[in-house]
Amino acid sequence: MKLLITNWIKRHFSDPQVVFLGGFLVVLLAVLLLAGRMMAPVVAAVIIAYLLEGLIGPLQRRSVPRLFAVLVIYLGFLLVVILILFGLLPLISKQSTQLIQQIPVMLAEGQAVLQRLPELYPEVISAAQVSEIMAAIRTELMAWGQRVLSVTVASVLGLITVLIYLVLLPVLVFFMLKDKSLIVGWLQHFVPRNRQLAGKVWSEVDRQIGNYIRGKFLEVIIVWVVSYMVFLGFDLQYAMLLSMVVGLSVLVPFIGAAVVTVPVVVVALFQFGWSSDLAWLVAAYLVIQILDGNLLAPVLVSEVTDLHPVAIITAVLFFGGLWGLVGIFFAIPLATVVQAVVNAWPRPRDLDPSSGDLI
Question: Using CA atoms, how far apart are residues 52 and 345, in angstroms rounded to an integer?
Fold first, then answer.
């Protein structure tokens, strides 16, 4: 057994490049797990700078000086952030408050509907079962309300932290973009000169993750805008809030579309009742989901469609359990990183069968 383990280590870790890549990944994972919260502004700034770099590159290829390209893209980024903070977030907050205040009314109407079911279908459901269902719903709503309250209190307590992030993030992003060559050159002092393997992994990760994140960003915006226009056309309440949730749901494969359907249908049901408006709205919503899943997503994120559905679901569950909502959002990019490392990892070839070694 000891010989098998020794031979396996020699086969897979005899190359210094493999040792460096493996050690780097272990250190990176340890830093994220142990100091993830402290380093959150830096990690967020790296991600934002990486995404903005994808817009700066094309400008440089058109002979635009890098500093000018950085200033243009960075000012556009700040403009978008300001519009979100002072335009979108107040509207979303207002509609969220209105929806939460409307929940007791919806619950009362739902209870009235459920109480009529034993009269209409006595052989299917009884009054006692209706009482149990309503008690369970009340319990869940109370628990949900307590969670919302705790999040609100935590948000108030963390307001100073948020303000610090709002100051630090733009500064970090600007200097990461402006001094990219300087920062990369400094980091290269800590890596070995012979780093073809690491370069191969990074090339694959950059190709797939860059295309995926930018494609998903466009997909979120398109689905959000189209959903908002459809909801606005039907005069659906909380149109901006619901369309935002529908747009963000594309970040969570398979699960997101199923989960977000519930609030859309429930709000439409309580607003329109069992009517043709409800049927047409649900039909339009389903068309959006079908077109997104079968046309828009494959076109925009075709570079990472080779991930198997089982791998995607496993990544969502694993990284979601590890880092919560942030982990869910970045599950597929992180799974792509794992896939790129596995694909680029050197495999022993031409083994001597007489050695009895197992791969």
Answer: 29
Assess contact for 267 and 100: CB atoms under 8 A.
no
Give every CB contact of residue 278 below 8 A, 6+ residues apart in sequence: 268, 269, 272
Roughly how many angstroms between the first and final C-alpha of the chain, as a whole number?
Answer: 14
Q: What share of the chain is helix, strand, coil (3-state, %, to 5)?
A: 85, 0, 15
Burial zone of 156 (CB within 10 Å; 0-12 exposed, 13-18 middle, 19+ buried):
exposed
20 and 193 Cβ atoms separated by less than 8 Å = no
Return the sign of the alpha-carbon dihedral for residues 304, 242, 234, 112: positive
Structure tokens at 227: 């959903």
**Residue 212 CA to chain centroid, in angstroms?**
11
The CA distance from 120 to 196, in Å, is: 72
Alpha carbon 61 to chain centroid, angstroms: 30
Mean pLDDT over 301-312 rounds to 63
Structure tokens at 233: 């056309």
19-38 burial string, b = 16+ CB within 10 Å, else e? ebbeeeeeeeeeeeeeeeee
* Whether residue 162 has pLDDT greater than 80: no
pLDDT tens per residue across span 67-125: 898 999 999 989 988 888 888 888 888 888 888 778 777 777 777 777 777 777 777 77
Question: Which candidate, 13, 4, 12, places its Cα nearest to that of 349?
Answer: 12
236, burial (CB in 10 Å: exposed 0-12, middle 13-18, buried 19+):
buried
Give dist(CA 107, CA 116) in Å, integer. 14
φ/ψ bin of 238: left (φ > 0), alpha (ψ from -120 to 50), beta (otherwise): left
The tens digit of pLDDT for each residue in 223-274 reads 999 999 999 999 988 899 899 999 888 877 667 788 888 888 888 888 888 8
The encoded tokens of residue 231 equal 């909801």
> Cβ(344)–Cβ(204) under 8 Å?
yes
Output the pTM of the full model.
0.69
Alpha helices by DSSP H, listed for 234-330, are: 239-249, 255-272, 276-291, 297-300, 309-329
